[in-house]
Give the backbone structure.
Amino acid sequence: MATKSKKKKQTEKFALGNEAVVEGALLAGCNFYAGYPITPSTEIAEEMARRLPPMEDGVFIQMEDEIAGLGAVIGASLAGRKAMTATSGPGFSLMQEHIGYACITEVPLVLVNVMRAGPSTGMPTSPAQGDVQQARWGTHGDHPIIVLSAGDVQECLEMTVTAFNFSEKYRTPVILLLDEVTAHTREKITLPDPEELYVYSRMLPSMPPEWYMPFEDNMRGVSAMPPLGSGYRYHVTGLTHDDHGYPTSKPKEVEHFMNRLFRKIDQFFYDIQIVDEIRCDDAEVCIIAYGCVARSAELAVDMAREQGEKVGLLKLKTLFPFPRPIVEKMLRQCSSVLVPEMNMGQISREVKRVNNGLTKVNTLNRIDGQIITPGEILKKIQKG
Amino acid sequence: MAQVTQLIHDYLRHSKKFPHVFCPGCGHGIVLGSLIRSVHSLGIPKDDIVLVAGIGCSGRIPVYVDFNTVHTTHGRALTFATGIKLANPRLKVIVVMGDGDALSIGGNHLIHAARRNIGLTTLVLNNHIYGMTGGQSSSTTPFGCYSTTTPFGQMEKEFDIAEVTKACGANFVARATVMQANLMDRMISTALEHPGFNLVELITPCHTQFGRKNKYKSTVDMYKWLKKNAVPVEKYQDLSPEKQKEKIATGIFVQKDCMGLEQRYSEIRQKIIGEAK
């Protein structure tokens, strides 16, 4: 019996949210981690430090600060690795310039931000959801970005795999937002079979090097990306550049470049938009939530249904690009929606923007470092 | 002459990027020439070289050369280079930075890259000023010198790049001025072949922003000054402290053979894998 269980591949595990992120990353093919430890994201770095060096080509390096961490990740990604880093509030603020760099140079990478209460040093071990708009607009300039979130430990694993797939597919940095509660919850997860898992890796060029254009426009808006040193020599710059990668400020070339950056995300909107609709079919009131609040909301929905109220939950897993069509559908269907979140209204702002007078949008905000309980949400629904 | 022309054709990108952005009399082109000669004489294939640069005048160097080139953010070139080197230790990673890049905004990264002893060749083009930004003082602007942000003279003591890097544990540290083409070629070539972190500080004149405000009437005066005051480091050590202030020590400051980070990493990995088996 003992030998049998030894042979049996481990498919279930008791893990922290942060550890599930590592499992997901390794399943997605991540083999490079650089970062700087910061609470409450440290377990990701610690687990990576144990898991990566014994791998054939795994690299873990603790850098001198968060800026250096993301810099090394960008460098490694340019050299062909699937690379990631993880951080929390203050570290995320430091990384903003490099997020912008990765956007404009179209470097795939995954950045996990375990949100903590802020601003500034704030409350290092208290949960919050205050970095939602920073993830979208933190860096200077106009650019598209993909921001995902996860609400439980299993989702931490799944969304990390998704984050890697999106980043490789669209040549863009992907930010995964967790909150302290999700990152530090320990529960049972099921590890997917690696052979059945959908893992996407960036497209490599097939043409001879002299024909290759690193930032060429095509149907997808995403060009092939060979690793540095593979014979395709090109220039990478944070300056606005043309199809060859050379700096340019000619209005026509700049416009073409910026439009392509936006288009490559826009045209695959339906691929990127991930939401869970829970008991939404006949809902008259809809809760729109994400992260650990969505978990409270799910229980609140059950409680309300028991009392005969038709309540549904729209759980956002993709935060940006904002899943407008599906949110709009719920806004048309319901007499009111409730957006509970652990900030002063960073997603309810988006909901209100989409709503534009369709229905009533209620908010429930908490910024005292405490989670929002199912009871609170239920009470708010009953009040209307 | 014919040979020089040939080299230019081999190594420069002639598709789009000329004329270049450097001012007349700038030393950056001389450094680029020296880098190309060094790479050529060592026979390193172009595909194996990644040239990483920060921001500013020196940051514009990579776009002209036909290597794998990365123009990064201000001061962070070493962090990108660290990622590239660890991701693929086979690559020859060369980092070009200005003095602002290397010692001001990127000072922390420089001391840690030197401490890690990661196998990067770093060229610091020191012109004692922020050239592209318009002539503000940098952390290497000499004491008492004038700039747009030190109109009454620099009140802070300047950094000695070579000494800082040496103290942080770099394997190879050298200095040359752009008036010493042969020395420069030799230093860069030695650095390129040296394992671990190596840094060559190159004193290059910026007449447009530094010279004009600091008693050098012309570019030629600046070059003459460099030629007159550069002395070999062995001679420099024998000079009195007052004399030392006027001179620039050139040559090799440190040359040791400690194992680079990437080799250490691969050794540790072999050990872990061996134990697991």
About this structure: Confidence is low (pLDDT under 50) at residues 1-5 of chain A. DSSP finds 14 helices and 16 strands in chain A. The CA atoms of residues 322 and 350 of chain A lie 8 Å apart.
